[in-house]
Amino acid sequence: MAKPTWMQVCLGVLTLLSLAPQNSHAEIKIGAVTCLTGALSTFGVSSIQGAKLAVEEINASGGTLGQPIQLIVEDNGSKAGETATITRKFISQDKVVVILGDLTSSATMEGAPLAQAAKIPLLTPSATNVAITKIGNYIFRSCFIDPFTGKIMAKFALDHLQAKRAIVMTDVKQDYSVGLTEAIEHFFNQNGARISNTFSYSSGDTDFRTQLTEVRNAHPDVVFLPGYYTEVGLILLQARQLGIKCPFVGGEGWDSPSLIQVAGKAAEGNYYTDHFSAADPEPRVQNFVQIYRAKYGAIPDALAALWYDGARLLAQAVQRAGSTDPAKIRDALAATRDFDGVTGRISIDENRNASKPGVILKIESGEPKMVQQITP
Amino acid sequence: MSRSLLNLMLALVACVFISFFGENFIASKFAYYYDILISIGVNIILATSLNLVNGYTGQFSLGHAGFMAIGAYASASWSNHLDPLIFGIVAGSGNPVVTNVAMFVSTLFAGIFAAIAGFAVGVPSLRLKGDYLAIVTLGFGEIIRVAILNLDFLGASRGLSVTGTYTNLFWTYGSVVLCIYVVVSLVHSTYGRGFLTVRDDEVAAEAMGINTTKYKVVAFVVASFFAGVAGALYAHFKAFVTPEGFNFFRSVDVVVIVILGGMGSTIGVVFAAVLLTILPEALRALAHTQFVPTAYQGLLENRLILYSLLLIILMLTRPQGLFGDGAAFKKWLGRSRAD
């Protein structure tokens, strides 16, 4: 007999794998795609822990439509192109009922058109780019979009901080930061207030004294800082060194323990908005925090909470649809009203985006404390 | 007609045949395997073309993803902006003849654009040798990525959606066949001996009156052309491109395929491209099977650890590449036939 060639070995292995015993068919299959390895793995691991916790709870209480949910988890390795492959796998191999994911906007942009073409409902719990849900009527999201974050930041500064003179510092390299800046300016203009000045910086900068000196000379009541934690930590530190006393207000990009590590005392007294706060006294939230901590030994972050809600929202939609027919699930998802999630009460609007409250956090004695919840 | 040209024609006809009869069936019933098939094709083109530079000409380029990015963005912009004007294609629909012509034009444009970029980079930097060249090409790949990140009309960090998903088995494997044909016949031609001379002993080559820089630039431009083609195929298949998809690690992926396949062995590199594209997906499937005890499932979920481990084992056992040079492969093939 001829010695098997490499190709035959490969084909053999593939055949064996495709013949591998599959799980029983009496299960509702949800395909979850996120980044468990690679650059964004810390976010991905949190997200999938949240989703798994939700599925375990649902299955413990009898599942959906009387059947347990099977969560098929796939890793995109934080690599471009992988989510498209995985989405095709979900649709053609696993025959999933719905897809949960992806974590980032750019990965979701790969998977969503395929899900739309195959008419399989897709719900992303954490991709905030506005363009995603415009792909089609099978694409949903359960988090709020960037313009909304900007709006609640601006609203908080006007109502709560009574800001008259406001300044924005924008990270021009980050799409997220530019989007928030536009939203803040828009809200200010609508409400008869005005942003007195805008300064820019780029991700990777380490010295912000030039811009901050001008900020100090303008004597603002509030400075908006819609950037990511790496630069924000340094900006806060340098601002306090220059003697700027007014509060800084940021978005969910601030949500990292390393911000407080870098800025130390300079972080105190500043505010940021987020999807979720583990310090929220709401019993539903505290219950979730407790269960999560018991299982994973850590306090859930915003992504864990968002994906927990996303998985539960999907399961509930399948339940309400009364069948696994994708079109019915789609309609049920679109009809979601006042879903009680740990990240707030979620309703899906006519653009298939979530309308839900955001929380304002204040950094006090080295920890973010919840100040208030703002509903749109 | 020479024998190799005949082989090329036969292979192209086979591609047309497969695409014509099998395309819709595979794409609809086995979308996942279809995706892997296209990825294999793209990786074969990338690795075979890089092999011309890294393997046959003995230079070390780390910027292949940069040329792929140029091709991907060039063809994507061409399709997004010019297809509606020239061919009247709206939102990727249109009759198959028109879309195939559109695909040909945008792929060719991508290849030529990338080749021009390859020439522009190659002329000044190919006077450098070894590690220095590696650093320059690495830097170039990063410059492209950062440039795209800052160009708003290319979508910047948001990424760019591509309207036409024209890539099919014919265009992918047609390009694979063409790429292999060009590289193999170039290297085996009288002219192509120049590449090997540059690799084996640059000083001796120069002493013999060979313009070494010219040979290096030719190899570089041909490789860039096919990297651009691979980028176009990728862009028109995944329908979405982002600068992060063409970072340094993408270049390293291709270099790994070339090294594993064996520098200067086209057949080895093709096999390595197939193997290294299937391997992560096979490991993905392995993680979900019931063969593995539950205790080890966690390990399998970290499939990239296994992937890296397999790479190390392969490199330790086959340091000369999967098949070493072509001669060793022919011998091996002959022996297994004789069994």
**Main sheet attributes: strand count, strand direction, barrel closure of chain A:** 7 strands, mixed
Mean pLDDT of chain B: 85
What share of the residues of chain B lie within helices? over 70%
Q: Examine the secondary-structure arrangement and name the CATH architecture of the largest domain in chain A.
A: 3-Layer(aba) Sandwich
> Largest sheet of chain B, described in full?
2 strands, antiparallel
Structure explained in plain terms:
The complex is a heterodimer of chains A (376) and B (339). Chain A is α/β, with parallel strands linked by helices. Chain A folds into 2 domains: 193 residues, Response regulator (Rossmann fold, 3-Layer(aba) Sandwich), CATH 3.40.50; 128 residues, Response regulator (Rossmann fold, 3-Layer(aba) Sandwich), CATH 3.40.50. Chain A has 12 helices and 15 strands. The longest helix of chain A has 20 residues. Chain A starts with 5 loop residues before the first helix and ends with a strand. About 1% of the residues of chain A have low confidence. Chain B has 339 residues and is mainly α. Chain B is 77% helix and 1% strand. Chain B has 14 helices and 2 strands; from the N terminus they run αααααβααααβααααα. A two-stranded antiparallel ribbon of chain B has the order 1-2. In chain B, helix 1 packs antiparallel against helix 6, helix 2 crosses helix 10 and helix 11 runs antiparallel to helix 13. The longest helix of chain B has 30 residues. Chain B is globular, with a radius of gyration of 20 Å. The two termini of chain B are 35 Å apart. The chains are: A alpha/beta (376), B mainly alpha (339). At the A-B interface, helix 1, strand 2, helix 3 and helix 4 of A face helix 2, helix 9, strand 2, helix 11 and helix 14 of B.
In short, what is this structure?
Chain A is α/β, with parallel strands linked by helices and 376 residues long.
